[in-house]
Design goal:
Blueprint (H helix, E strand, L loop, with lengths): L1 H7 L26 H4 L1 H31 L3 H29 L9 H18 L1
Amino acid sequence: LIWLKDFAQNLQPQASSSPSDDSALAPAMGSGASSSKDAPHLAEYFKKLKAKTEATQEQMMDVGLAMLASGTAEQAKKAKEEMLKWYEEEGKPCLTKSFEHHDKDKSGVLENAEAKVFFLNLIQETETFT
Protein backbone atom coordinates (compact mmCIF):
# COMPACT_ATOMS: atom_id res chain seq x y z
CA LEU A 1 0.00 0.00 0.00
CA ILE A 2 2.88 2.32 -0.72
CA TRP A 3 0.72 4.19 -3.24
CA LEU A 4 -1.96 4.90 -0.65
CA LYS A 5 0.61 6.66 1.52
CA ASP A 6 1.70 8.71 -1.50
CA PHE A 7 -1.84 9.84 -2.24
CA ALA A 8 -2.94 10.40 1.35
CA GLN A 9 -0.51 13.31 1.43
CA ASN A 10 -2.52 15.00 -1.33
CA LEU A 11 -5.98 14.86 0.22
CA GLN A 12 -7.41 18.09 1.55
CA PRO A 13 -10.58 18.01 3.63
CA GLN A 14 -12.86 20.98 3.14
CA ALA A 15 -14.96 22.29 5.98
CA SER A 16 -17.42 23.79 3.50
CA SER A 17 -18.22 20.44 1.88
CA SER A 18 -21.20 18.66 3.29
CA PRO A 19 -20.47 15.02 4.19
CA SER A 20 -23.86 14.08 2.76
CA ASP A 21 -23.24 15.82 -0.57
CA ASP A 22 -22.90 12.89 -2.93
CA SER A 23 -23.45 14.84 -6.14
CA ALA A 24 -19.76 14.40 -6.96
CA LEU A 25 -20.30 10.65 -7.03
CA ALA A 26 -22.80 10.82 -9.88
CA PRO A 27 -20.28 10.22 -12.70
CA ALA A 28 -18.94 7.11 -10.99
CA MET A 29 -22.18 5.64 -9.72
CA GLY A 30 -25.21 4.19 -11.37
CA SER A 31 -26.31 0.95 -12.87
CA GLY A 32 -23.62 -0.51 -15.04
CA ALA A 33 -21.18 2.34 -14.38
CA SER A 34 -17.77 1.47 -15.69
CA SER A 35 -14.96 2.40 -13.39
CA SER A 36 -12.55 1.86 -16.27
CA LYS A 37 -14.33 4.62 -18.16
CA ASP A 38 -14.42 6.96 -15.17
CA ALA A 39 -10.92 6.08 -13.95
CA PRO A 40 -8.87 4.80 -16.91
CA HIS A 41 -5.55 5.13 -15.11
CA LEU A 42 -6.74 3.11 -12.14
CA ALA A 43 -7.87 0.41 -14.55
CA GLU A 44 -4.44 0.50 -16.19
CA TYR A 45 -2.72 0.29 -12.78
CA PHE A 46 -4.71 -2.75 -11.68
CA LYS A 47 -4.21 -4.47 -15.04
CA LYS A 48 -0.45 -4.02 -14.68
CA LEU A 49 -0.55 -4.98 -11.00
CA LYS A 50 -2.40 -8.20 -11.84
CA ALA A 51 0.24 -9.16 -14.42
CA LYS A 52 3.05 -8.32 -12.00
CA THR A 53 1.37 -10.21 -9.15
CA GLU A 54 0.93 -13.32 -11.26
CA ALA A 55 4.60 -13.23 -12.29
CA THR A 56 5.69 -12.53 -8.71
CA GLN A 57 3.63 -15.43 -7.34
CA GLU A 58 5.52 -17.85 -9.55
CA GLN A 59 8.80 -16.21 -8.59
CA MET A 60 7.94 -16.39 -4.87
CA MET A 61 7.21 -20.11 -5.14
CA ASP A 62 10.69 -20.57 -6.56
CA VAL A 63 12.11 -18.34 -3.80
CA GLY A 64 10.35 -20.37 -1.13
CA LEU A 65 11.72 -23.63 -2.52
CA ALA A 66 15.22 -22.15 -2.78
CA MET A 67 15.05 -20.87 0.80
CA LEU A 68 14.01 -24.30 2.02
CA ALA A 69 16.88 -25.88 0.14
CA SER A 70 19.61 -23.37 1.00
CA GLY A 71 18.31 -21.39 3.96
CA THR A 72 19.09 -18.00 2.35
CA ALA A 73 16.82 -14.98 2.15
CA GLU A 74 18.73 -13.32 -0.71
CA GLN A 75 16.14 -14.26 -3.33
CA ALA A 76 13.30 -12.90 -1.17
CA LYS A 77 15.18 -9.62 -0.82
CA LYS A 78 15.68 -9.51 -4.60
CA ALA A 79 11.96 -10.15 -5.20
CA LYS A 80 11.03 -7.31 -2.84
CA GLU A 81 13.45 -4.96 -4.59
CA GLU A 82 11.97 -5.93 -7.98
CA MET A 83 8.43 -5.21 -6.73
CA LEU A 84 9.50 -1.80 -5.41
CA LYS A 85 11.22 -1.08 -8.73
CA TRP A 86 8.03 -2.07 -10.58
CA TYR A 87 6.00 0.24 -8.36
CA GLU A 88 8.28 3.22 -8.98
CA GLU A 89 8.60 2.64 -12.75
CA GLU A 90 5.11 1.40 -13.69
CA GLY A 91 2.65 1.50 -10.82
CA LYS A 92 3.28 4.97 -9.44
CA PRO A 93 3.08 6.70 -12.86
CA CYS A 94 -0.38 5.13 -13.43
CA LEU A 95 -1.54 6.24 -10.01
CA THR A 96 -0.13 9.72 -10.55
CA LYS A 97 -2.08 10.00 -13.80
CA SER A 98 -5.18 8.81 -11.96
CA PHE A 99 -4.68 11.41 -9.24
CA GLU A 100 -4.31 14.13 -11.87
CA HIS A 101 -7.42 12.82 -13.67
CA HIS A 102 -9.45 13.11 -10.45
CA ASP A 103 -7.96 16.49 -9.45
CA LYS A 104 -10.46 18.36 -11.62
CA ASP A 105 -9.47 21.84 -10.39
CA LYS A 106 -5.74 21.05 -10.85
CA SER A 107 -4.99 22.27 -7.32
CA GLY A 108 -2.53 19.46 -6.57
CA VAL A 109 -4.77 18.11 -3.80
CA LEU A 110 -8.01 16.16 -3.81
CA GLU A 111 -10.84 18.09 -2.21
CA ASN A 112 -13.68 16.14 -0.57
CA ALA A 113 -15.77 15.74 -3.72
CA GLU A 114 -12.76 14.72 -5.82
CA ALA A 115 -11.57 12.30 -3.14
CA LYS A 116 -15.01 10.66 -2.94
CA VAL A 117 -14.96 9.95 -6.66
CA PHE A 118 -11.33 8.78 -6.58
CA PHE A 119 -11.90 6.34 -3.72
CA LEU A 120 -15.18 5.06 -5.15
CA ASN A 121 -13.37 4.34 -8.43
CA LEU A 122 -10.49 2.78 -6.49
CA ILE A 123 -12.84 0.46 -4.63
CA GLN A 124 -14.58 -0.53 -7.86
CA GLU A 125 -11.26 -1.34 -9.53
CA THR A 126 -10.03 -3.20 -6.45
CA GLU A 127 -13.15 -5.37 -6.55
CA THR A 128 -12.45 -6.32 -10.15
CA PHE A 129 -8.80 -7.02 -9.28
CA THR A 130 -9.52 -9.55 -6.53
